[in-house]
Design brief:
Blueprint (H helix, E strand, L loop, with lengths): L4 E6 L4 H15 L3 E8 L17 H16 L3 E7 L21 H15 L3 E4 L4 H4 L1 H16 L16 E6 L2 H13 L15 H6 L6 E3 L5 H10 L1 H8 L5 H7 L3 E7 L26
Helix pairs in contact: 1-8, 2-8, 3-5
The chain binds zinc ion.
Length: 290
């Protein structure tokens, strides 16, 4: 078993690449084993018919895209929890009893505890409380992962595996200045920041209102090309993402500044400035610097 282990607990096939493709590549390059929980099958993604050629369903297509992205990112293993994608808040799919949003938090947390106890990651990443941009599946996996992070070390919480305590928990986030910058850019392009995306259901102003403090800033600029290649694997979703993704030159410029909120151990001061998610992590053999 390799020494450094990072677990990312996310909701959809594409979250890992769009959000953390550069970060994953940076840690893999340092010899860290990166594991992914993908809680849903991405069933509710908006897909134009030409992408469905050769696939029985949107879920099958999106899991195939994830498979290709995980090869590029060299993920050690992807744990697919198999829930149905809930779609956006209030949509018909969010009422589906098999959706992640309708699943009991305790049940999802148990699945995450089982993965944590199997993988034994030192560092865990999930979404922030607002689920990045208010997506119910992002919020559901954030709640379940936060619960599981504590429950995994509880000897009375029985999964038939020994208890295990990861050392750090982070929420992924975007720093407020980057969101403000994005809003200004949208206004310049004549876009309404409260109605963004292919279905006009993403509210960038609300993302700003729910932003959490940045405690760690990771430079993943050197891995930008792998990040773009992994994102390109999710081509069925790129059309929809285009309307709120920043232009390539700006993405490249911002890549050195991936922000994270440290939840555990809780920062003693409101401002801490880590440059490595493994800073202070106890390992048998230290991993090389970024
Ligand atoms: Zn997502």
């Amino acid at each position: 078993m390799s020494n450094g282990r990072l677990l990312i607990s996310y909701a959809h096939p594409d979250d890992e690449s769009f959000g953390l493709g550069g970060l994953i590549a940076a840690y893999v390059a340092r010899g860290v084993d990166v594991y992914l929980i993908c809680a849903t099958n991405g069933d509710a993604g908006t897909v134009t018919p030409e992408f469905l050629n050769g696939y029985k369903s949107v879920a099958e297509l999106r899991l195939a895209e994830l498979e290709r992205a995980s090869e590029i990112l060299k993920l050690k293993h992807v744990y697919k929890l198999g829930y149905k994608d809930s779609g956006m808040m209030g949509s018909e799919t969010s009422h589906d009893p098999h959706s992640l949003w309708q699943a009991s938090q305790d049940e999802v947390a148990r699945r995450v505890v089982e993965v944590i106890r199997e993988v034994k990651p030192q560092v865990v990443i999930t979404f922030n409380k607002y689920g990045g941009y208010g997506h119910p599946d992002h919020i559901a996996i954030q709640r379940a992962t936060t619960q599981a992070f504590t429950a995994a070390s509880d000897p009375t919480y029985d999964t038939g595996q020994p208890p295990y305590q990861p050392q750090k928990l982070y929420y992924s986030g975007i720093s407020t200045w980057q969101i403000r910058f994005g809003i200004a850019l949208m206004r310049l392009r004549g876009q309404d920041p409260r109605r963004v995306g292919i279905n006009k259901d993403i509210d960038i102003q609300a993302i700003l209102e729910h932003a959490e403090p940045t405690h760690a800033t990771i430079n993943v600029g050197r891995y930008f090309d792998i990040w773009e290649r992994a994102s390109a694997c999710h081509s069925s979703q790129l059309g929809g993402a285009r309307s709120f993704r920043l232009p390539l030159s700006l993405r490249r410029w911002l890549a050195p500044m991936q922000g994270f909120t440290r939840i555990y151990p809780a920062p003693a001061r409101s401002r801490i400035d880590e440059r490595d998610l493994f800073a202070g992590v106890k390992l048998d053999k230290p991993i090389p610097a970024l």
